[in-house]
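To whoever is on call:

I kicked off a structure prediction for a single chain this morning and the downstream step that reads the tokens threw a length-mismatch warning. I double-checked the sequence; it's 319 residues and nothing unusual in it as far as I can see. Pasting both halves so you can look.
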Amino acid sequence: MKVQKSNINAILYALITFVMSLLLAPLFINGDQVSYHAFYNNCFDLVSLSQEFKCYNSTLGTQEPIYFLVIKIFHTFFDKNFLMSIFNSIIVFLFVKIVYKFYIRTILIHLFFILFFLNYYVVVLFFSAERLKLSVLFLLISLLLIGLKSVFSKVLMILTHMQMIFIFFVDFIHGFFEKNNKKLWVKFVTVIGGSILLGIIYYYMRDHIDRKVIGYSNRTAESDLGLISLLKSSIFVLLTYVSVQKNIVILMQIPLLIGSYILGSGRMLIMSFFVYIACLIYFKGKVDFLGYIVLFYFAFKSIEFWQNVIKYGTGFLEV
């Protein structure tokens, strides 16, 4: 009965998300959406695939191949806003299904869903961060799969948005240190296999990765790099530990702290927030009082974002 209820609610939330995404997406006419629309409308039907990929690279400033291939496949069938609305609804469907697997206090589950989907970081994911959105979709798919299928989905996740390699490390650390999860020799083989896999990815994407890291590292004032960024991300580590009371959650978030120090909090806080919520759901089976305070805060924070969107066509204003 619980499974059936989760399916119904997942479909309902997905449908609501699809309709609202279609209605709200046209408001985003400036900021990153200028480049995404230019890529969607101008970078296909060229002479060759290589020219299309060069257009993708020059327009969005990235070389991650999976987002390019997915959009190339679907751009002839769907309008951009329609396709992104489909992706948003799939993300919501998968997320609701996953939450129902672990949430033990279902009487409050709808309050959690409403606050979560209205919060600032989810709004950014749905309407601004398109490559990250598709990468998160592959992440959610991987969580519902096992074995090589799950690994393959995580590879797609990384090749859609290289920043998600930090989430790969979070998941890897959790799997490695969780008690009674695997035998020691299996963990050793997993470490070797994971290292080889990441080495291959870095070999083929090294120019893109090095350029991005150097670029972000040189924008110290803009991105709040170093200790300031580290302190910001540490807030989520502290919140997670206070609620969960397990040392593993500190280990899991070390990659995010490293990423914050190198790339800046603006790039990593969205991931820290999602990991915080994931730890609450997985380890506690619920969102506690502190978690609801955090959700209310970020739901309130989204108001200013929407005000900017309505007035300027983008939620992020250049300072």
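Update from on-call: the warning came from a stale cache, not from the record. Cleared it. Sanity check on the structure: The chain has a mean pLDDT of 87.
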